[in-house]
Design a protein that fits this description.
The complex is a heterodimer of chains A (109) and B (115). Chain A has no helices and eleven strands. With 109 residues, chain A is mostly beta strands. In chain A, a hairpin with a 4-residue loop joins strand 7 and strand 8. The radius of gyration of chain A is 13 Å and the shape is globular. In chain B, strand 5 and strand 6 form a beta hairpin. Classes of the chains: A mainly beta (109), B mainly beta (115).
Chain lengths: 109, 115
């Protein structure tokens, strides 16, 4: 089967940098995605890694290492509005996503 | 970005009744849509892949006779929860993506409460 593990909760202060890790077990996938979900809302796409390395999109960066079965999302210059749940997800040829366990990020003033 | 809508946003029904949830892609055509279920403070669990013009593909452990999926057009998929029970109470979310791509667009979700 496939599984993606994330820390359940992370707390950081406004303006800081936080890293949310994702370790996975899978037989194969096309890429690793990251989604943000505010309480009661829909997940929204943040970033995607098809290849190993770092992808940067504004304040968000994502990293993938297939050899280590590991990825992370890096959030810089944290803002209060970044308080949300963050999910990693793997996708394959059919475009369906298998989501990680999710990380609740709390940004404190 | 692409827009996906869901209707209703919330519904309360009595145990034993059926509930239909609609998922629409508003500005693109989707041959494939996905249905997820999310319990409070948990992750999204993929239930099934909805295929336009053909049968849905269900994930292991999901009862296809209980969760009926119909994808009759390129912009509409429906999920019907049949003979609902309180344990079916959850947040149901659909997603779709324009073309072959890794980015999925999610509907706003439907909160189902079965009393």
């Amino acid at each position: 089967g496939q599984s993606l593990e994330q820390p359940s909760e992370v707390t950081a202060v406004e303006g800081a940098i936080v890293q949310i890790n994702c370790t996975y077990q899978t037989s194969g996938f096309y890429g690793l995605s990251w989604y943000q979900q505010h309480d009661g809302g829909a997940p929204t796409f943040l970033s995607y890694n098809a290849l190993d390395g770092l992808e940067e999109t504004g304040r968000f960066s994502s990293f993938l290492s297939r050899s280590d079965s590991y990825g992370y999302l890096l959030l810089q210059e944290l803002q209060m509005k970044d308080s949300a749940s963050y999910f990693c997800a793997i996708g394959g040829a059919t475009n369906k996503l298998i989501f990680g366990t999710g990380t609740l990020l709390a940004v404190q003033p | 970005g692409a827009v996906v809508s869901q209707h209703p946003s919330w519904v309360i029904c009595k145990s034993g009744t059926s509930v239909k949830i609609e998922c629409r892609s508003l500005d693109f055509q989707a041959t494939t849509m996905f249905w997820y279920r999310q319990f409070p403070k948990q992750s999204l669990m993929l239930m099934a892949t909805s295929n336009e013009g053909s049968k849905a593909t269900y994930e292991q452990g999901v009862e296809k006779d209980k969760f009926l999926i119909n994808h009759a057009s390129l912009t509409l998929s429906t999920l019907t929860v049949t003979s609902a029970h309180p344990e079916d109470s959850s947040f149901y979310i659909c997603s779709a993506g324009p073309g072959q791509g890794y980015e999925q667009y999610f509907g706003p979700g439907t909160r189902l409460t079965v009393t």
